[in-house]
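Tokens as discussed.
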């Protein structure tokens, strides 16, 4: 776009309630712009976040919303060329950007960027790295696809020279079908994992790997790439790198590894080892081996940046987590309700195992909604049953907006439940199509001491809060 914006100018965001778009709205407001936007779907935590900031959110999409002609429009990837507001922007000649283009302009600028990418773990890893740099006094900028509890916001514009970004492999906008992370000018990259996902964007795993390779090719020779060695596809993606490559994890090619891992009262302890030499014990307030890997990546990157071990250990220990990542929503009569964003079968399995390890001896419920564009399809029909079956009780909801997925491509939740029960006995798993009916069922079946783990990458009709309310009413 041409021309320069000035504080007080109006920026309008189409599809403002997405996690990234809502944080971008907050960033723009903090820089002095007048911000508003529109969305078809508005649910917590982003709806409450925008409300707290006083940012106006218009319901639905209408040409009337652009009567007050904005100075700039940011178009989210949730809308298509046929969206009435998009058409109006084009017809009126209003300057526009995609979400990642806006981040490049308003956040990255001339700063040096560390981009965290991968199928799993990038939100927690980005938030943890941003917190470490802030805690040791580097005053970084950051942008993360969630709300880190240490900051209570998904963005920050700092005075330091580094910016930490969560790099999404999803496409940028209807006018830019490349992945968002290609806009972030990476100097350093953390690659946490590569598995097939985003079936609405990528044909297969090879197509997805090509996107990650494009990012690797952007890293300058003076930069660096840190790769989890536990994913064969990630190792393949790293091969063409022209910069130094460092590996972490339990795979064969390793520089950094976490040893002597144990869990105490919901906190994980481990020893970071570089080429076999221990750097002492590190403690993180996170559960699960996958989060140990996330912390190991942050530790390795921080050491590469020259951060002192003692300061690094203190920063890691004081991390508070991210909303909707193993977030305890409440406890009623000894029953704990936990909310998590997991939607890929690998993430579901790792989350269930992590929660079970953190709460030994307690009966574990897994309440799952197939909501993402991949989980709604039958691509992982065989993978979901064993991922969910490690819980003691399973509730699977109906596919979100099933009419948008052809029937012959659609996931079958009843078949998932049938397979779990075939393997593990009757009554372990149930299919409840309507989310509104889940809280009552759970409240009737739970007993004191149970853990209820709710997993969805969307609003899930507020099931988490409704379960808590149903439990409170039951015990009143």
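Sequence:
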């Amino acid at each position: 776009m041409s021309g320069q914006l000035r504080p007080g100018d109006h920026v309008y965001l189409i599809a403002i309630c997405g996690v990234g778009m809502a944080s971008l709205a907050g960033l723009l407001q903090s820089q002095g712009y007048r911000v508003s936007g529109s969305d078809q779907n508005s649910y917590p935590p982003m709806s409450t976040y925008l409300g707290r900031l006083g940012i106006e959110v218009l319901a639905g999409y209408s040409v009337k919303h652009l009567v007050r002609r904005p100075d700039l429009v940011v178009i989210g990837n949730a809308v298509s060329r046929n969206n009435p507001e998009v058409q109006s922007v084009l017809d009126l000649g209003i300057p526009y950007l995609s979400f990642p283009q806006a981040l490049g302009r308003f956040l990255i600028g001339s700063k040096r960027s560390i981009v965290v990418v991968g199928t799993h773990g990038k939100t927690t890893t980005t938030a943890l790295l941003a917190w470490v740099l802030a805690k040791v006094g580097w005053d970084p900028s950051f942008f993360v696809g969630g709300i880190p509890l240490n900051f209570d916001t998904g963005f920050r514009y700092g005075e330091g020279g580094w910016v930490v970004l969560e790099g999404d492999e999803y496409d940028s906008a209807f006018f830019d079908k490349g992945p968002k992370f290609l806009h972030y000018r990476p100097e350093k990259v953390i690659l946490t994992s590569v598995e097939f996902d985003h079936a609405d964007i990528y044909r297969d795993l090879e197509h997805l790997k090509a996107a990650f390779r494009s990012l690797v090719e952007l890293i300058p020779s003076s930069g660096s790439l840190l790769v989890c060695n536990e994913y064969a596809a990630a190792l393949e993606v790293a091969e063409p790198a022209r910069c130094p490559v460092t590996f972490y994890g339990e795979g064969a090619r390793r520089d950094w590894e976490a040893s002597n891992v144990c869990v105490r009262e919901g906190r994980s302890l481990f020893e970071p080892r570089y080429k076999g030499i221990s750097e002492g014990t590190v403690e993180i307030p996170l559960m699960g081996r996958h989060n140990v890997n996330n912390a190991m990546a942050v530790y390795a990157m921080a050491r590469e940046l020259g951060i002192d071990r003692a300061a690094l250990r203190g920063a890691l220990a004081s991390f508070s987590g991210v909303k909707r990542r193993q977030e305890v929503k409440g406890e009623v009569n000894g029953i704990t309700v936990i909310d998590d964003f997991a939607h890929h079968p690998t993430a579901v399995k790792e989350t269930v195992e992590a929660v079970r390890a953190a709460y030994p001896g307690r009966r574990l419920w897994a309440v799952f909604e197939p909501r993402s564009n991949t989980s709604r399809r039958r691509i992982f029909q065989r993978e979901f049953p064993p991922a969910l079956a490690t819980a003691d009780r399973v509730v699977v909801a109906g596919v979100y907006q099933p009419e948008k997925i052809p029937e012959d491509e659609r996931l079958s939740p009843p078949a998932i439940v049938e397979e779990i029960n075939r393997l593990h006995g009757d009554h372990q798993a149930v299919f409840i199509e309507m989310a509104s009916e889940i809280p009552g069922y759970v409240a009737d079946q739970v007993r004191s001491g149970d853990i209820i783990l709710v997993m969805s990458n969307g609003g899930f009709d507020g099931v988490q809060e409704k379960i808590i309310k149903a439990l409170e009413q039951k015990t009143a």
